[in-house]
Write a structure and sequence with these properties.
Blueprint: H1 5-80, E1 91-95, E2 99-104, E3 109-119, E4 125-128, E5 135-137, E6 139-141, E7 150-152, E8 162-165, E9 171-178, E10 187-194, E11 200-208, H2 210-213, E12 218-228, H3 234-239, E13 242-247, E14 250-255, E15 261-264, E16 268-274, E17 278-288, E18 290-296, E19 304-315, E20 321-332, H4 335-340, H5 360-378, H6 381-424, H7 428-442, H8 450-455, H9 457-469, E21 491-497, E22 501-504, H10 506-525, H11 532-548, H12 554-578, H13 581-593, H14 600-623
Antiparallel strand pairs: 1-2, 2-3, 3-4, 5-12, 6-7, 8-9, 9-10, 10-11, 11-20, 12-19, 13-14, 13-16, 15-18, 16-17, 17-20, 18-19, 21-22
Amino acid sequence: MKFDRNTLMGFGILAILLVGYLYFTSKQQNEHRRKKQAQEEVDKQAQKRRADSLAIVNKPKEDSIRRATDSLNKINKAAIFTTTADTTEKTLTAENDLVKITFTNKGGQVKQVELKKYKGPDSTPVKLASTAYDKLSYPISTGQAGPNGVVETGDQFFSEGTVTKNGDGSQVVSFKLAAADSAASRAITHEFILKKDDYMVDFNVKIDGVSQWLPQGTMNLSWQYAALQQESDISYEKDQSQISYVKDGSFDYHTIGRKSSKNFDESVKWVGVRQRFFFTILVAKNEFKSGTMEWTIPSDSERTVVRSVAKMQMPVQAGSQTVVPFSIYYGPSEYHILKSYGMKFDKAVNLGQGIYAFVRPINKYVIIPMFDLLKSIAGGMGLAIALLTLFIKLITSPLLYKSYLSSAKMKVLRPEIAKLKEKHGGDQQAMSMEQMKLFREAGVNPLGGCLPALLQIPVFFALFSLFNSDVALRGADFLWSKDLAAYDEVIKFGFHIPLLGDHLSLFNITAVITSFLISIYSMSMNPDQSNPILKYMPYIFPVFLLFFFNRLPSALTWYYTVSNIITLALQYVILNYIIDHDKIMAKIEENRKKPKTKSKWQERLEQMQEQQKKMKDQQQRNKR
């Protein structure tokens, strides 16, 4: 690639932006997570020491009290609800082609969800909402005095549960919690509806006697959720995970490592926890009126990405029977699937967020439609990425051509620029004025090689976002990579190297080598670069790539490798077979003969330069 000074500056800016983004983002997230984990560990150890000390002293007394309390609670609960005399947990399942859901009568809720089309780190189906921490509950009034006056539904044993299959392929799972006083006609039914070929589960809370169960007319719903590790690199998975929600009709999110809570004063349609490739969402069809959400990041050894608890309030109208409708999504964070629900779920897919939101339209309207087409015909994800790279290079080739053409023009003017340097010596102002005059007479834009390079930055960041969020890449193998959504581990060190890690990605090496080849070829076409920074920048940039690309998905480093190869081929063809240097020289001579008109910006710039030159001359005379 024939680079002039401005072209190299453009790529230098690209390198600085890329390195800065990767470095500072990673540094901030890792530092925040490290501090939180360290503090949590200190708190955990202190709490454990206190608990151990108390346990040694109080264990005999506590055992006696606990046995008596458990016996009394069972008697009290049996007197309150007709279904709680038997405190044995019973489960049942319902499934379609996408999910298998296990329900429990304890709390009348979901106990575990298996995604049939996706495998976890242990090669078994991905499991969501499957820990003891996961819980969906709300307080209800029993009408009794004392400690059993208000209880949590999540701790109560509902009826054994029934499964009803409908003609449309849907299944209805029901659990019932009824008051012992049948005359009061008080009962709560939890009804789950699993449709055919759907990740969304409808959840209806049917309440008979609302004013007795919820005297304040408000349901205070508590949703606890633990997102288990699903990818090989849990720290990278944490970096790509977030808390998402729609409040007052607008979507928003928080990366889990940058904040730990969110208060909702406006109406909330849904709240969700999105891991890198999987999403769990609680939807209130009538909307929550307010609430809070808090989350913590466990240590990596716990194999849990984040633990969250949402405490949401919803007004419930009094009546003989009231239905409070919810929905819960357990499934992949796949753009097309989430978009089909029409509730702004798809905005949680990182196609460009935060300061990089400007690349989201590029992904939505250009790259994703083309990538979907290529995936359907390529027969493999690796080949689809290569074809996508070729497509991108073809549509951006006019920019590359203009960049090379500008470089060729600057090369033609290089002897005259060298003469100007000899003439003015160290007088940079005079040199700058004469150089601008030369460019104007020749009809050359000195930024012509820089701007096309800068315009390719949005494409790179668009692909960076896409390849980090496209679940179709997960588990897709290509060449030596077993998972294009993760880095390849062909070379393992067995120890940790600062900035590099414990491995060296082979696709990262190919990306670095091809970048070096471009640098070598470019400098061979531009050997007389006098500025040492610009001279060595093309060689420094690949070194940065070696360190900052090593943890990135293989899909991205494979794309970068193919992109470099195509760039080498294009620049060779353009510079040797398309651009005619004799015609460029003739065109420049023709431009010199034409009358020149200055733009207002050029006039102001020249006036400023002339004033600065006069001031400098005056200062030198005063010194003499």
